[in-house]
TrEMBL record:
Potential transporter for phosphate. GO terms for molecular function: phosphate transmembrane transporter activity. It holds the Pfam family PHO4. Keywords: Membrane, Phosphate transport, Transmembrane, Transmembrane helix, Transport. Belongs to the inorganic phosphate transporter (PiT) (TC 2.A.20) family. GO terms for cellular component: membrane. It is a multi-pass membrane protein. It is found in: Membrane. The chain crosses the membrane at residues 44-64, 76-98, 133-153, 174-197, 209-229, 241-260, 363-385. The keyword Transport applies. GO terms for biological process: phosphate ion transmembrane transport. This is Phosphate transporter. Its main location: membrane.
Length: 387
């Protein structure tokens, strides 16, 4: 029976890692593949290497937290570990079905918290610290990206090019090609650091799997996902860059990867998807507010109205350009207009910065996923298993 449970646990861990590799590779290297800087095969190679490196270094801190700090490691029997991994796998399924980036990290922590409450062994200090950072991280992601969008984005757009014009590659294009690959590797490292624990922390906590064998198992599963199902996500992300330009995607990756990397180093399991999504919203808002004064921009943030006025639904329109073709000139030939004097037509369309209904659904799922995971886990361990 123990052998069967252990085999099931390994299979679920591989399933989780496989899906992480499939989704994270597209996010990390979609811009590089979409700009023809990197092939899908090399994207998979780099994802495999840097995700494993992230998991084997600062990712071990997250494994320690999830495998023995929220609740004592002695509570992770083999059966309990398999049940918790089941909840993580279920979160991936829900995320895929609804097309919303539900956090596997938050779901896993919720399941572990449910076990801790049922057994009376949860460390509320550790749990409170984790939940506090769940609130701080997306807010930080939003405002950092908003500052970049408002003050730096147009200057970067003028100085860096991400698509080659031919054999005679310019300095701007070489810088862009280097950055698009380097930032992809950085994102892969951060994804490995934060997500490896989701696949193996319960098994490591139970003592059935060693720390570094667990990291190797998760890293191998991520690699399989990177070489197989990630090809589809690479196509999706790479071909969807008309909605999110390569520069914007790289800023989102850099800010979100830095936040999650620092939290992983501190042993805090947090959601890369949540931070990345808030980076997109923040970058778009900051970009759109270049047409207004700081006072007007603050008012728009409070009321939810677009800086340029008008109605509509959200989008990343603030990140795309909707210029009059006759007035358009290549980035290297343009000058950046001062804040407050930039033409609204060069920044955003007449759409609101976000769709309140869509944003509400996403935020609601972020709250519901760990909450439902914790409740279901508590009920299972309290009443079904009489833990």
């Amino acid at each position: 029976m123990v052998s069967i449970l252990f085999a099931i646990g390994l299979l679920v861990a591989i399933f989780v890692g496989f899906n992480i590799g499939g989704s994270s590779t597209g996010v990390a290297f979609g811009p590089a593949v979409g700009s023809d800087t990197l092939s899908k095969e090399w994207a998979a190679v780099l994802m495999s290497a840097f995700a494993l490196l992230g998991g084997a270094t600062i990712g071990t801190e997250v494994i320690d937290t999830m495998g023995g700090r929220i609740v004592p490691s002695g509570q992770f029997t083999l059966l309990a570990s398999v049940i918790i991994l089941f909840f993580v796998g279920l979160a991936l399924l829900v995320s895929n079905l609804f097309g919303v980036p539900a956090s596997t990290s938050m779901t896993a922590v919720g399941a572990i918290a449910g076990l801790g409450v049922a057994t009376g062994t949860i460390d509320w200090t550790v749990m409170g610290r984790i939940v506090s950072w769940w609130l701080v991280a997306p807010i930080t992601a939003f405002w950092l990206s908003a500052v970049v969008g408002r003050y730096l984005y147009p200057h970067l757009e003028v100085r860096i090019a991400f698509e080659s014009t031919g054999p005679d590659t310019s300095r701007r294009e070489r810088i862009g090609q280097f950055l698009v690959v380097a930032i992809g590797c950085y994102m892969a490292f951060s994804a490995g650091a934060s997500n490896v624990a989701n696949a193996v922390a319960p098994l490591v906590g139970s003592g059935e799997l060693g720390l570094y064998p667990g990291v190797a198992l998760a890293g191998g599963a991520i690699s399989i996902g990177a070489f197989t199902i990630a090809r589809r996500t690479l196509d999706t992300v790479g071909n969807d860059l008309t909605e999110l330009p390569i520069l914007a995607a790289l800023i989102v990756e850099t800010v979100s990867a830095t936040i999650i990397g620092l939290l992983s180093w501190a042993g805090i399991p947090a959601s890369l998807a949540v931070s990345a999504t808030m980076c997109v919203v923040g970058l778009g808002w900051g970009r759109a507010t270049r047409t207004t004064t700081l006072v007007d921009a603050a008012g728009a943030a409070i009321t939810g109205a677009a800086a340029s006025g008008g109605g509509g639904s959200v989008t990343v329109d603030a990140l795309t350009t909707d210029r009059d073709e006759a007035a358009w000139s290549p980035p290297e030939e343009r000058e950046v207009e001062p804040i407050g004097q930039e033409d609204p037509q060069s920044v955003t369309s007449a759409a609101d910065l976000f769709d309140p209904a869509a944003t509400g659904r996403v935020v609601m799922l972020w709250i519901l996923a760990p909450s439902m995971s914790a409740l279901a886990s508590f009920l299972v361990f309290q009443y079904v298993l009489a833990y």
